[in-house]
Each structure stands twice: as C-alpha cells, then as structure tokens.
Amino acid sequence: MMDKARKAASFNTYELTCLIHGGADIVKQRRAAFNRVEKLTGTLDPSKLPCSYGNMDREQAYDEGLEWGKAAFEDGITHKHTIFDNITPRYVLSNASPFGLTTVMFIPTLRLQATAEQRAKWLPLAESGKINGAYCQTELGHGSFVRGIETTATLDTNTDEFVIHSPTLSSTKFWPGAIGFSCTHSIVVARLIIRNKDYGPHLFMVQFRSLSDGLPLRGIDLGDIGLKMSYNGTCNGYATFKNVRIPRSDMLMGNASVSPEGEYKKSPHAKLSYATLVYVRTVIVRAVAFQLAQALTIATRYSIVREQGLGPNGLATTESALIDYKSQYYRLLTLTSKAYAILFASRTCDAEYAILRKQQDAGNHGGLPYNHTLAAGLKAWATQAASDGAEDARKCCGGQGYLMTSGLPEIVASVTATATFEGENYVLWQQVGRYLFKLIDTLADRKPIEPKMNYLADGWAHFSWMSPLATWRPSDGCVHVIHEPCSARGEQFLDANVQLSIYRHRALRLIFSAYTALRSSSLPPAEAWNEHMMNIINVARAHVEFVVLQEFVSHTSTLPASPMKTVLVNLRSLFALSTITNPASINAISFIEDGYLSLSQLSTIRDLVNSLLDKLKPEIVALTDAWDFTDASLCSAIGMKDGNAYETLMNWTRQIPINVNAKKDGGVYKSGWDGWIDPVLRARL
Amino acid sequence: MMDKARKAASFNTYELTCLIHGGADIVKQRRAAFNRVEKLTGTLDPSKLPCSYGNMDREQAYDEGLEWGKAAFEDGITHKHTIFDNITPRYVLSNASPFGLTTVMFIPTLRLQATAEQRAKWLPLAESGKINGAYCQTELGHGSFVRGIETTATLDTNTDEFVIHSPTLSSTKFWPGAIGFSCTHSIVVARLIIRNKDYGPHLFMVQFRSLSDGLPLRGIDLGDIGLKMSYNGTCNGYATFKNVRIPRSDMLMGNASVSPEGEYKKSPHAKLSYATLVYVRTVIVRAVAFQLAQALTIATRYSIVREQGLGPNGLATTESALIDYKSQYYRLLTLTSKAYAILFASRTCDAEYAILRKQQDAGNHGGLPYNHTLAAGLKAWATQAASDGAEDARKCCGGQGYLMTSGLPEIVASVTATATFEGENYVLWQQVGRYLFKLIDTLADRKPIEPKMNYLADGWAHFSWMSPLATWRPSDGCVHVIHEPCSARGEQFLDANVQLSIYRHRALRLIFSAYTALRSSSLPPAEAWNEHMMNIINVARAHVEFVVLQEFVSHTSTLPASPMKTVLVNLRSLFALSTITNPASINAISFIEDGYLSLSQLSTIRDLVNSLLDKLKPEIVALTDAWDFTDASLCSAIGMKDGNAYETLMNWTRQIPINVNAKKDGGVYKSGWDGWIDPVLRARL
C-alpha cells in the first residue's frame, strides 16, 4: 500500500527535499551525518526496540541523552558541520542534549556579548568541547520576566571580584538546560550590584564544575529538576550560589562594562542583548516546522496502512484505509499545509536575522524592534500551530498514537514545550501588539514607520482619510468605516492576492479597532490594557497570520513552473482558505464578523477546500517523505518508511523487558502476582 | 495569598461540594474512603516525594498501580461502597487500575449480557475479588469498528465446546486493560462460527490464567504493550489464542444463544449489547469533568501564588500575581465554566441511562437510539473539551506545568486518552449526525420523533413551512430561509432563553443545511457523506453544545436562590457567551456566518464576558476547591491546598533519587561524567 501511495505523487520528492533543506549538497551532508550518528548509537536497525521504549527511568533517559548528545556534538566538530548545533538527531531542539546548550546558547551569547579578549579566551574552548557551557537565567520565581531576576553579582573592589549569590528560595536557578550534572561552565544572569546600587540583570561567566572530576565548585549547589514531559535526555537543573567569587573580568563586557574602581559604563545599545533572544526564536520556528512534519509523517504513513470500518457512513463492502475518510485527510493535509507555512516563514525569519546581524555589526540597531517582533510573533504562532497540530496528528492514529512505541507521544511532548520556553506565547503576543500600536502612534504623528510594515501605513492612510478618530464609535470597539465586503467569487479565491486581501483586511480591522478602543479608553493604561488584552492577542495573531501567508506566497510564487510548484501552490491555497473555515482555527470569526465574507462566499471557500483536498490527497505521502526523516529519527513502530506497522509494533512489543522477563517465568510477572494479585484473590472479603 | 483568595468567595464552598458530589453523606463517605486508601498507600504526607516522580520505569509504574489498585478495590468491598468502581484514587478512569476492568467492564457486561445461571456463577466471584476480570475486544487491526474483529469462536458440537483462535497477526487482541499480567478471566469478543457460518462478534468467557500461580493457560500468549502516555499503572496487554477450548456454556447467552446442536437463537434486540457502551460513556463524561477540574485546581492555585512581571503592559511598580492578568483568568474561568458544564451534562446522561435500564428490564429498548446518541455526543464533546482544557490549564503554569512533579502532565496525558477510547470521537460525531438526519427523515414523512428531540420538530415545522425542499439552493449548502437575526441587546444576552435561542438557531441551521445538502446530493451516498463529513461533524457538535447549555440551564435555574446560585448562573452565562467569542472555540463562526449576530452584538457579548470574568474572579479558588480534591489525589507540588508551591517543589526535587545518589558522590552523576562528559572534554577534536 505504501508503494502505491508513494507512486501516486505528481512531482519528484527529492526535488522538494532539496527545496526544504536548501540544496542537494546539504541533503547529502545531512544524510551522511545522520547515518554516522545512528550507526554510532546503534539505532540503525529498525527491528531493534529503541531502548527508551523498554524503560524510561530518570537515569536511563539521561544516559541515553549523553550517548546521543556526545555522538552528535563530536560529529559536528570532526566533520565540520553545524547540523546538530540546533537540533538533536531526533529533531528536538539541542537544549534536549546535555551538550546542546553550548552550541545553542553559550557560544552565540559569547559572540554577541563578550569582549574580543573574552571571545578569544572562551570560544576556542567551547567550540572544541574542552568546556561544556550552559546559560543560567530562569529562576524558581522568575521566567519570562527577566528584570525580576533575584540572583546578585556584587562587586568587591578590594579583590576585584564579583560575588555571585542566591539571596532567596525563589532566586534558585531552576530549569536551565544541562546544569544539573552536565555543564562545566555557565553564563549566569544576575543583578549587577556596585556600592549597593542595583544596575539590573547582567551576564557573568561562572565555572560550575571542576574539569578534572566534575565536582561542583565551592558554594555552588547543583541538581536535576526531575522528570519532565520530554527533554529527559538532559538534566535541566537547579543551582544556588553561596557567595561564589569570580574575577571582575568574567562579567561579559562586550556591551555594558565595569571598571576596577566600579565605574559602570552603559551598553551603547541596551537592546543589543535582545539579539540572542531573536536568534533563539528563529531557531525554534524552524525546528517546530520539522517536529510537526515528523508527527505528520508518522500519522500519514499509518493512515495509509491502517484499515478501519466500511468507509464513509459504513456503506462500503470491505474495510477502508483511514486515509480515505474525509475527516482524516482534511486534518492531515491542512496540518501539512501548516508545516510548510511555518517552514517558509522561518526562511524569512532567518534571512531577516542575517540582515540584522550585519547592521548591528556596523553599529546600526534600528532593525531590532522589527526583527524582535517578527521572531516573537512567528515563535508564538508557529509553536502553537505545531503543538496543537502534532497532538491532532497523534490523535489521528487512535490508540496506537497513545503508545510510546508510536514515537508520537515523545514528539508531541517535546514540541509543546516550545509554546512555553524562550518567551511564553501570551507574553510574546502582547509584545507584538505593543509594537503594532507604537507604529500606529507614529503614523498618527505623521511620521514614517519601518518600511517592511508599510501595509499598516497603507491601511492607516485609507482609514484616517475615511474618518478621523473623533467621529468614531469606540464604545462597541469596532471599526465600521474601513469595511467594504470582499468582492471575490468562485475560483477567484484561489488567487494569492485575493487570499492576501482577506488576511490583510482582517488584520487591519482588528489592529485599528483595538488601537482605537485602547487609546480612547477612560481607564488607567494598565487597566485598559487588561480590559482589552484578549483583543490585543487576537490583533497580534491576525497580523502574524497575514505575514505567514505573505511568506508562503512569496516563497512559492517565485518557484519556476513545475509539478512541484503546482502542488505547493495548491498547498498554499489550502492553508489560506482552510484557516478561514477549519473548525479548529483560532479566532476564525474575525474573518467574517464584520460581514467581509458572506455565507455563500464561505460556502464557496468550503467547496474549494474540498476540491483542493482531493487534488492533494495523492501527494500526501510525498509531501511528508520530502522532509527526509530517517526511521531512526522518527523512532516510530507505526511510521516507518516501509509501512509495516503491525509487524514492527508486535516485534518491538515482544522485546520490551517486562515481557522478556515474564517469559522467563512462563508468562507471569512474578513479583506483582505474588505481592498484590494473589493476595486479592485469596482475601476473604 | 491562598487564604485571602479563598476568603474572597461570596458563597459557601462546602455547599457547592455537596452539590457536586450529590449530598453531604456522600461527601463524608468519599472523604473517609480517600483518607483510608491514602493512608494505606503512604501518600498522605505531602512533604514526601511521590515515588512515581522519582523514577518511572515500566515495572515500578505497574507495581505502584497494583498497590493503589488493590487498596482501592478492597476498600470498596470492605466498606461497601462503589466510589472506586469507576475512578481510581487519582481520579483516572478505573481502567487505569489492574483491578479496575472487573468493576468498570467485566461485571457490568455480565449483568447485561449473561444468563441468570451465568450471572449466579460469575458475579459473586468477581464482586468478591476471587477472580479478576477483563474485557477483550480491541485487536491490533480493529478498534472502533467492532464488526471487523477477526478472532474466531468456532463451535465443536462433538465436544460441546467453542474453540477460540487468533487467525492472523492483526487479530491479536491489543490494548485491553489488565490482560498483560493482572486479570485471571476475560470476556472475549470473537466471531461466532457454526458449521462454517459466520454469525459475527459475540461474547465469550475465557479463563486466561491459573488461579494458583498466575501462569497463562495453554494456548494463550499474554504480554504488556509497553509504556503509554499514561495508564502505566496497569498492563494494557496483547493476547493471542491458539485453538483454546471453552465449554459452549461459557458463551454469554443472555441475548443471543447457541444450542448443543448448533442452533443459533438471535438476540431479541440486537442493539441491547450497546447498553454497555452507553454505560461506559456516561462514566467517561462524569470522570473527565473531574479530571479537567483537577488541572484547573492546580493551575488556579499556582496562578494565585505565582508572580510574573509588572502587571498588564508592564505598568505596575511591583510584580503581579499571574491571576491578575486578563488572559490568565480568562482562560482559567472559561475552562472552569466548561468543567461545570460537563458535570451537569453528565448528571442528565446518568439519569437518562437509569431510565433506559428500567425500560430495557421491562423489555422496551425504544429509548436506546436516543440514549446511545446522547452518551456518544456528550462523550465526544466532553472528552475534547476536557483534553484541550487540561492542556491549556497546564500551559497556564508555564515551565512548572511541564514538570512531572506539577502533576499536570499525568492528568493531561490520562484525560487525552478519553478522546480516543470507547469510541473514537470523529466516529461518534458521525453517529450523532446519522441519528439527527434519521429524525429529520421521520419528520419529512410526517411521523413523530423521540419527544426529547422535539426542538428538531419545532425547527422543522418552522423551516418546512417557510420553504419546501424544492425551492432550495443546496448548491451553496446554506439554509437562508429560517434566518431571522437575533434581536437581543445589552444585558438581554445574560438571559438563559436568549442564550439558548442562539445555540438553537445555530444547531437547527447547520442541521437542516447539511441535511438538505446531503439528501439532495447527486453523488453516491458514501461519496456524498465523505464530501460533507466536516459539515456533518459541525452539525453534531452544534447539537451537542445546545444540549450541554440546556442542561447547564436546567441544573442551575432549579436551584433555590443563594449566593452559590448567583455564582453558578454567572458561570453558565460565561460558558454560553464565551463559547461564541473565545478565540479557541471550535467552529464559532457558525454562530454568526449567516449574520444571526452582528458585529456590535458580538462586541456587547465580549463586554458582558469581560464583566462576568471580573464578577467571577473572586470566586475562582472556591470554584476549584469545591471539587474537594485531596492533595494526594492531585499529587502536585505546585497545586497543594496550602499554596506553598516553591517550598514543596524544591523539597520534592531534592528527594529525587538521581539527586540523592549524586549528593553521595559530592554532587556528580559519576557514571555519566566518567562515561560521556569527561571523554568529550579530553577528546582532541
């Protein structure tokens, strides 16, 4: 069945693989790297039960993470590639590896925030693995709100040292990756204190462990925070400092600096430190596209081979494959369109970040607010889409999707973490909203705004011309004035510009209406913000969805004509149109609540979605194969490339230690039977 | 902070506790039972790390399940109560216990489908725990589609026996609870074969294990299916049968029967076997209300004590509690309203089932289709609401919600299973749709329908009077004719009847529009069904949401006037109105796509939701306390009644074995350091 489904595709899968990964050379390099690491970790043979599925106690999980982490980290150095700098060989973000923080946080932070001398000292050590770095920011009592950090770094001018200290229980560093037992050094975020003056959070290089025996240095208490939903291959940990002394020169002084006498020199650009955040979020956006695609690859393959029921409405005479049920391929294909939407958006995010870094190196930080907002918004949108999508893909596999051996629970559990870390999504949405409103304030002052945001300027011109703020009815918080219903009909809805106009109208209407409601509110600013918070979040999401569609359009329309392009263009239309009518879409009513789309237009859109689904159904296996996941990286009994779901599942199941051991006793779990079951049977109750 | 938040409530929490559990006596009995079991399992002391959080390998998880299961099962027998017949002391469905299937499936099935003699033989043994029963239906290749079951039971008239056999790999029984290592007997669903004639799936009593030593009987291969997302306290297992012989008299012949000569007597009412399904689904609906409430209890308490940021828009001078952010109490309170909505709906479901059983005992099975649909629809709706809601409550706790020690991952993982088992939700939605369309066929034939569904009859009268099917435009699949916009304004939207009218209009419009589109389709029936499947699912959901609101209204409006009633009525309005405007609501556009509600009416509804949220915010702790969860049943470091989240979290964390062991070595995880980290540091790469 798999072969037939695979052959049904109209385009060359390898061509799409190259598009996804950025060229044939990279595809070749990646395949070689995965093969080496999988060989080294003994995971190449798909008939062997992956050890993590047999048992998963805390120690075993960490041991496995150490093995994978070492193999991936050393492969990158030995073969001079960065493939595993940001993701593990299972496509989880590298902070899932005990050696991953050094590449994903430690080195990038040094590059951005250390002095030339500090970089010369630390980077060679970190890049060659002679030290294993981490990044300590989050505390038991303080997450996304960095200014609340309580750990202190107090200057002692007599000894020219900083004293790192944890003054309270809530100041305990809690969550940082690899600090439990793995890292040797860490950058620590602590409040800079000079002569009792608090200069707020700054970065300090602190050695945590002896390089000779791994023992924590004096005054540092380290440990593991225990089992998590996923990421158990690393030791997210806790750390407390009892008057730990470090040389003054180990404060990262690339930006702000402190002299031996205790003179504080401010950062030339306070926001420069945000660059690390922007970087990490661009990494996350790309990573979750692949994690969602992993879940979809497994669910799609299983849906091809799994039979269930007598077809739609039970009217067939033989059992039908899951994939033939509309609800199944509706869910899988719309989610697939989202995975591609995230991928293309991440391309833009990466490119913009590269430009920003060039500008910053030239001392120009003007692009930061735009890039910070772009990365924050895409991170919030993509991580939510990927988390919800991976879980729905898992549910598409029924009971089997609930088994660890399906690989899906681990994927879902790891991707859902991204909605929380590196900026909790609800916090990020509000940052996006704040940025949008600031731009409109600028426009209201008749000043120019960031050119990349000019669709706001156009909307504003249109809107302010049509009615000055004064004549408004903010009482019902709606902008009525810029409302002209959509005029598209029939196939016109397949036109990228029509699709963009719908998303643009929705975003502009929500932005201006929330802006007006907020700025004209009689409440104190904080209360007004709270009053309208849910709308502000909707505003941010609508803006980001417009941007995502925009990038989907730009990355597909520029492709040369080919069967692959046709498929990707249909996929883009499916994304654009199903986001309006999909029952699971978030805040879809804002597309139509002002009457912009009529009932019969919605009905047309639903019909088009149906025909797009039927067009794309034969492509579904190729669209997931194209991501080029190895069987070992999926680690799924039901999602392997060969489609032998039941054989692999039973084969793995019989290898589970509790079964192997019970077989030795003739098929009974002795301790359980003797200790608990037999006593119940014999009890005279 | 907890005390202050607790005291803020306007009503008596205990009064609500009694309402939730059904009276003061039951509350008293439950508290005693939980206390006995928690004492017996050593989980009363909240300062002790629950063992499952230290480690969770396959064996330990099962051992813990055996201990809890035995304690709960025996407590029920000893103290003559049924508290733990359907849920564990952690509020998971009893199939999470190795002794739970006997009460939740085995005994109920015997009662419904065994003969008097069979009941007399088996029930006393099962009810006293002298045998431990299970229920074997699902196979590796066959889940919700029972007719696809492949296991055979062939009559051998020479020996007056049935031969139970697994003919294929896909016929392997896979998933049934407690069969891996725990059960002694099981009801097995197998195809009845007499003289090569296949009579389809029937039920057979099969002994799996020797009562003396627990060894599987000859020809039966049993084992565990391995780690799952949750339910690891029991041994969901696999079973294959190699020509296993049982007495002919061990087929459950309460309905269909087979004579020694092999004459088959049909069931008087084929659908009687559905009664078990209906029963189990009513149990699930009630259970998930409590599981969602568990997640909300933890998230609410943590949101009270957790501080994060400088308030809305960062304008405050001191850090604010999470609960003070609109997005936080919007999510928590709307989810709380859902938990109560599910609870009240389950009351109706239970009552209807009790009536059905009475009727069936009197030989009247007429109520089955209605009850089957009610239970199926509520199961699908409630399990989705509870799964999504529990996960969102978990996300409300940020990073801490990702820790096993928060208790939330386990709750989320166990509740999400209910969306899949005992009837996969997408299958159930379509059954509901089928039932609704059948009723309309009946109405079209001018015949009466089930009185409890009369809102359809009213809608039909209205609609058919306004336009005969002929004059329709099914092309765009919309009913235009029964569309009169909602006339409500301002506070009128707080009126239960206005709220009901909105839900009723939406349900009727979707039902009639989908019905017309389907019945007037030119496609073959199966293809037509597939073409419209997503709409049919929307139809079913809209109907069920109308029913849920109806029951929320009926259970609250009948209460005597009291502060508690005022709160519950506000909670009902919050449920009714936020379901329309909540960005996370499923298919909310169907409330407005026909223009039934205008933009300014939606704006009014959003304002009312805001004011309801502010009214209910002081009640939030009481509304979760009222469910009366013990600390041990929540098993959460951040959700204990006292609100000492950080103290408990750090206290538990330090007790985690990997930390305790590392401390003995001076703070290093020796094997990991020596085996993996040290080699990386020393490698010359």
From TrEMBL, chains A, B:
Keyword Lipid metabolism: yes
Annotated active site: 422
InterPro entries: ACOX_C_alpha1 (IPR055060), Acyl-CoA_ox_N (IPR029320), Acyl-CoA_Oxase/DH_mid-dom_sf (IPR046373), Acyl-CoA_oxidase (IPR012258), Acyl-CoA_oxidase_C (IPR002655), AcylCo_DH-like_C (IPR036250), AcylCoA_DH/ox_N_sf (IPR037069), AcylCoA_DH/oxidase_NM_dom_sf (IPR009100)
Cofactor: FAD
Domain Acyl-coenzyme A oxidase N-terminal positions: 12-131
Regions that span the bilayer: none
Family: Belongs to the acyl-CoA oxidase family.
Record domain Acyl-CoA oxidase C-terminal: where: 496-662
UniProt keyword annotation of Cytoplasm present: no
Record key words, sorted: FAD, Fatty acid metabolism, Flavoprotein, Lipid metabolism, Oxidoreductase, Peroxisome
The protein's name in its UniProt record: Acyl-coenzyme A oxidase
SUPFAM superfamilies per the UniProt record, alphabetical: Acyl-CoA dehydrogenase C-terminal domain-like (SSF47203), Acyl-CoA dehydrogenase NM domain-like (SSF56645)
Residue sites binding FAD per the record: 138, 177
Origin: domain of life: Eukaryota
Localization: Peroxisome
Molecular function, one GO term: fatty acid binding
Gene Ontology annotations for the cellular component aspect, listed alphabetically: peroxisome
Organism of provenance: Mytilinidion resinicola
Coiled-coil portions: none
